[in-house]
Amino acid sequence: WAVCISKVTAHAQTASRNEVDNYLAEPALGHQLGPLDLWKKTRDRYPRLVVLVCRYLCIIMNSVTCERIFSKMGLVVTDRRTSL
């Protein structure tokens, strides 16, 4: 089984690497499409990359959690907080 598993793993790594190389070789689309629209359009060509994209595009970008932690710690106005 070890030989079979190593061949499958090597194939998956090669396919993933080829997918990344193909994506990087494409010309940049500029700002014509938003990130979600771009990946909806290209998800069939890059099925492995779209898994990562879905994971990272769903992250909400805000500082609410960080602000809440600093407030609970009583660090309302400090040099450390203002440097975030």
TrEMBL record:
<feature type="domain" description="HAT C-terminal dimerisation">
    <location>
        <begin position="19"/>
        <end position="84"/>
    </location>
</feature>
<dbReference type="InterPro" id="IPR008906">
    <property type="entry name" value="HATC_C_dom"/>
</dbReference>
<dbReference type="Pfam" id="PF05699">
    <property type="entry name" value="Dimer_Tnp_hAT"/>
</dbReference>
<protein>
    <recommendedName>
        <fullName>HAT C-terminal dimerisation domain-containing protein</fullName>
    </recommendedName>
</protein>
<dbReference type="InterPro" id="IPR012337">
    <property type="entry name" value="RNaseH-like_sf"/>
</dbReference>
<dbReference type="GO" id="GO:0046983">
    <property type="term" value="F:protein dimerization activity"/>
</dbReference>
